[in-house]
């Protein structure tokens, strides 16, 4: 059991879910410390039936903490997490800042658990759109190496934080009433629209969100040869990212084999019967911790191709759940080992 | 100038736009006949400033008509259009029924105009999701033959007819107020959701909408070797379909060359500057007749690949506009020829 767990970013969209998950899963910790920006410090929150005061995140607030889980913007993670490592804590970070650092482990417990167990510094949790895709890819990759991935995403506004969610509701209401609305989280109206840009422009005409799907996937699967072409699109869905994924594998994987590989892979739920209209939808995957897969079919344009539809709760498996699963993995390893000494 | 034009399906979502377009474009016709089902017969409509009575569609209502433009469900097109052909009319059909008939021309005026001019029977207008994609593909195909297409669509509810549009508004309002709503045009809630099924299940795990994109594209481009992998998804957008398209061409086409090819192709508007957030959106393409292209970039997963984002008004270029452009093409050819006799 962890002695003292520091949670950073408890007032954010992911942070609030993190608290709920730790309660539900009876996370093995003796005590907690709740950290946020100076703006939220002093406020109280309810956790495990008690009232707790939120403390301000500072460089010297990690004394005695053996685990830190952080859900913050990149710049906060950049500034404060090295102090947590120095204080001796195991640090799990949900931001994008540390993921591609060669000294940092980038981990999905179902995919590359050993990387978390071997880590000596920060352990990063991947970007939401990457995580659900890589869980599904790994199930196939173990059967036949993946050569190429073409993915188009249908991403929910909750990925743009609390303001993204507020914008969708307020913007939709205004639109239905014929009123204007000034969006804060989006550069274009998201209500009843589709915006083919998430993140900022990077190289080659791709966005930061798209290149995360390329580089994080290669790092997690430990295979720099996988070719990936992503298109990331924001759509007016409150929560859960959907992805249309086409893969080419070294040898053909039939839909029947793929269905079996997905079904037996930890953390994947197959929901696949087109004849009766069964496939994952954002509306039925929200508040779930798994990655849902359907529309599994032969890629009729390539003999080694396979296509499928993949949905997951981007705040859960795409963020909070994955971070907590990393912590649980470490706990199981560390404390069971200690127990057998 | 056409002597007498019969318009079938004038009360539907596409039919109403057809009337507006004929007015706006000063379509060359001396007189019109407005046809619909028995349910709508006897009602009146306003066209070119006058009031007109809608007549019932029957097998012998085409006497004296030299042009028929039909926007109806497949079964109506199947039953009545042969009678229009027998009566000697040029028949342009927007339904899906006749498109793949070998005796029928399937036409996009910017792509294969000669097929319309050579036609002796029905001339079909392609499915909305096909049309906008093929306009864009043709611009590339002329420079280097297209080998493979992978497309994921983001389709608007207006493609599901008037009831689809009503469902989105009513379902969204109900959802925002926490109420239930019984959807009529969709098997799942479309408000704030993404449904990866349009049309019915066909072969190989693909839907009817998806296979239309395969077979219609090959027929229009006259190239049965093009490999196409479509995923068709309905999203909560009122109007305009968006498509994430990746193509492989025989030789590589650079983004710079592609931008030039698109820009000079008739009917395409390039809107492409990621740095300043410029790309086509459903919200700014509605009520436009063109096909809009942006996010033009190298496919970083394939040396002969190119990716782009394509948006068009599915009721206009995807249906009404294309049908009327076919009629205008025939008029220009027939009546200018007559004039030079």
TrEMBL record, chains A, B:
It catalyses: L-aspartate 4-semialdehyde + phosphate + NADP(+) = 4-phospho-L-aspartate + NADPH + H(+). The active site is at 128 (acyl-thioester intermediate), 241 (proton acceptor). The keyword Membrane does not apply. Residues 4-119 form the Semialdehyde dehydrogenase NAD-binding domain. Its EC number is 1.2.1.11. GO terms for biological process: 'de novo' L-methionine biosynthetic process; diaminopimelate biosynthetic process; isoleucine biosynthetic process; lysine biosynthetic process via diaminopimelate; threonine biosynthetic process. It comes from the Bacteria. PROSITE patterns: ASD. GO terms for molecular function: aspartate-semialdehyde dehydrogenase activity; NAD binding; NADP binding; protein dimerization activity. Phosphate binds at residue 99. Substrate binds at residues 155, 234. This is Aspartate-semialdehyde dehydrogenase. It comes from Symmachiella dynata. The gene is asd2.
């Amino acid at each position: 059991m962890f002695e003292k767990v520091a949670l950073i970013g408890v007032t954010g969209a992911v942070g609030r879910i993190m608290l709920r998950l730790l309660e539900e899963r009876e996370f093995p910790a003796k005590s907690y410390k709740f950290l946020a920006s100076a703006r939220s410090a002093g406020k109280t929150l309810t956790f495990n039936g008690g009232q707790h005061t939120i403390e301000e995140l500072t460089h010297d607030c990690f004394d005695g903490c053996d685990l830190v889980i952080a859900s913050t913007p990149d710049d906060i993670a950049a500034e404060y997490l090295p102090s947590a490592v120095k204080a001796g804590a195991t640090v799990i970070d949900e931001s994008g800042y540390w993921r591609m650092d060669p000294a940092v482990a980038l981990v999905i417990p179902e995919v590359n658990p050993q990387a978390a167990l071997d880590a000596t510094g920060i352990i990063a949790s991947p970007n939401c759109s990457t995580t659900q895709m890589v869980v599904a890819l790994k199930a196939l990759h173990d059967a036949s190496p993946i050569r190429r991935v073409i993915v188009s995403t249908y991403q929910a506004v909750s990925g743009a934080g609390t303001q993204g969610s507020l914008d969708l509701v307020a913007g939709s209401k205004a639109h239905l009433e014929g009123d204007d609305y000034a969006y804060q989280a989006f550069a274009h109206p998201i209500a009843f629209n589709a915006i083919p840009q998430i993140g900022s422009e990077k190289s080659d005409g791709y966005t930061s969100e798209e290149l995360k799907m390329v580089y994080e996937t290669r790092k997690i699967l430990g295979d720099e040869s996988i070719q990936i072409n992503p298109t990331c699109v924001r759509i007016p869905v409150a929560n859960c990212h959907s992805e249309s994924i086409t893969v080419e594998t070294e040898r053909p994987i039939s839909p029947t084999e793929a269905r079996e590989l997905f079904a037996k892979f930890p953390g994947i739920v197959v929901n696949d019967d087109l004849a009766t209209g069964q496939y994952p939808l954002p509306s039925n995957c929200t508040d779930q911790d798994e990655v849902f897969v359907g529309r599994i079919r032969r890629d009729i344009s390539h003999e080694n191709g396979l296509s499928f539809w993949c949905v997951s709760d981007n705040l859960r498996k795409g963020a909070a759940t994955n971070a907590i699963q990393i912590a649980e993995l470490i706990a199981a390893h560390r404390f069971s080992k200690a127990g057998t000494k």
